[in-house]
Write a structure and sequence with these properties.
five-stranded mixed sheet, 410 residues, Nucleotidyltransferase, domain 5, 12 strands, ROK family transcriptional regulator, 17% strand, globular, single chain
């Protein structure tokens, strides 16, 4: 079972840039310059040299090569300064493209992203059950729409990033499904299947790590060096950023807060034959809100939109908010003791107003614990919402330096 679960994921710890040969170093330096422009906007060569720590001559060579390849473009010269006018260098939106694919337990998302990281085409398919063949059929249709949109520019696609849960076949009991309904995923090489459908090289990343990557590159994470990322979806999930880098862990599963126990396990419980302590996802997940609505005879899909805070859904949402905030606060306390991070970024697939209420109640729940010996982290709302995962997936093939930050190619 473990081999099947890990089939589509990296199995080694992160490797950082080694500069082992000229080709690797050249690609790495190009990525460093591109990332500097992404984070700081259009910059002159001298400013890029200062930001990246590279020499002005090296930056000049890199910029000229990228100008020749159509990856960047020159903007109007800035005059009125001492010396020669400086020419800002910007990323060329049409210089390259990437495709992001997020394969979730409730929804398939496909996004075509230009070289600036802006989504230019988005397609989605919603489903109640992740049946493999139906999902691949929908994916094939979405990928054809991407090719049709690009037309002659299809050759500029650098690759596809695939974001998916660490185990599609896990937690059948919470999903209220018989085990055999999800077992088909265990024997699938999803990466190979998607690569066959797309014709592009495919890299795989855990869905919550992809969402965190997007937040790190384009959201609140740009201003944070150490944080725990929490994403509220069908199941809750997480990722870890340390020193401004996404930390993958040995198996690409760092930040798997869904599996955190909500209480300690005692020998006496085992002797009585009690079940193991419940995990965080048993209380902190949008699936629980769906099920609460269903028990009340209400439309469960309201868990993902503004209806959740309107009558008659509001009462069930209030109870869910209190229970979920308690579970999240317990997880935040444990992670703070282990990681010593300065913030927790909370985002999700639900309505932003519901997410803001969850953050506020989690902040209140944190005050019920003793923080002696610890520094409580700040709680911050993420900025990307349900699009975070598919955007992060697209950024993986788009940005060469990400391979050094997170070992997605092992």
């Amino acid at each position: 079972m473990l081999t099947a679960v890990l089939k589509n994921f990296p199995r080694h710890a992160p490797r950082h840039a080694q500069g082992s040969n000229h080709s690797d170093l050249r690609q790495f330096n190009e990525g460093v310059v591109l990332q500097a422009i992404r984070l700081h906007g259009a910059q002159a060569k001298a400013d890029l040299a200062r930001i990246t720590g590279l020499t002005t001559q090296t930056v000049g060579v890199i910029i000229q090569r990228m100008l020749d390849d159509g990856l960047v473009l020159k903007q109007a010269a800035l005059r009125g300064r001492v010396g020669q006018p400086s020419v800002p260098i910007a990323i060329h939106p049409e210089g390259a493209y990437a495709v992001g694919i997020r394969l979730g337990r409730r929804q398939l998302d496909v996004s075509l992203v230009d070289f600036t990281g802006r989504a230019v085409l988005q397609r989605s398919t919603r489903y109640d059950f992740p049946e493999p063949e139906a999902i691949f059929q929908a994916l094939d249709s979405h990928l054809q729409a991407v090719r049709d949109h690009l037309a002659d520019a299809v050759g500029r696609v650098r690759g596809a990033g695939l974001a998916m849960p660490f185990s599609m076949s896990g937690w059948q009991q919470q999903l209220e499904l018989p085990p055999e309904r999800l077992s088909a995923w265990d024997s699938l090489d999803v990466r190979e299947r998607v690569q066959r459908l797309s014709g592009w090289p495919v890299t795989v990343i855990k869905d919550t790590a992809a969402a965190c990557l997007a937040e790190l590159m384009q959201g609140a994470g740009q201003r944070l060096a150490h944080f725990l990322y929490v994403f509220m979806d069908t199941f809750v999930g997480g990722a870890v950023v340390q020193n401004g880098r996404l930390h993958s862990g040995l198996h690409g599963n760092a930040g798997a807060i869904a599996s955190l126990p909500l209480r300690e396990a005692h020998q006496a419980h085992e002797a009585r034959g009690d079940a193991p302590p419940p995990q965080l996802l048993s209380s902190a997940s949008l699936l629980r809100l769906e099920q609460a609505f269903q028990r009340a005879g209400l439309e469960p899909s309201a868990a993902y939109d503004g209806r959740a805070l309107q009558p008659p859904w509001r009462d069930a949402s209030e109870r869910w908010l209190d229970d979920t905030a308690c579970g999240l606060a317990f997880a935040v306390l444990q992670s703070s003791a282990l990681l010593d991070h300065d913030a927790v970024v909370l985002d999700g697939s639900c309505d932003p107003a519901l997410l803001q209420m969850l953050l506020e109640r989690t902040q209140t729940a944190l005050t019920r614990y003793s923080w002696e010996g610890l520094l409580p982290p700040r709680l911050i709302c993420g900025q990307l919402g349900r699009s975070a995962g598919v955007l992060g997936a697209a950024l993986v093939p788009l940005e060469p330096t990400l391979g050094w930050q997170y070992d997605i190619s092992a």
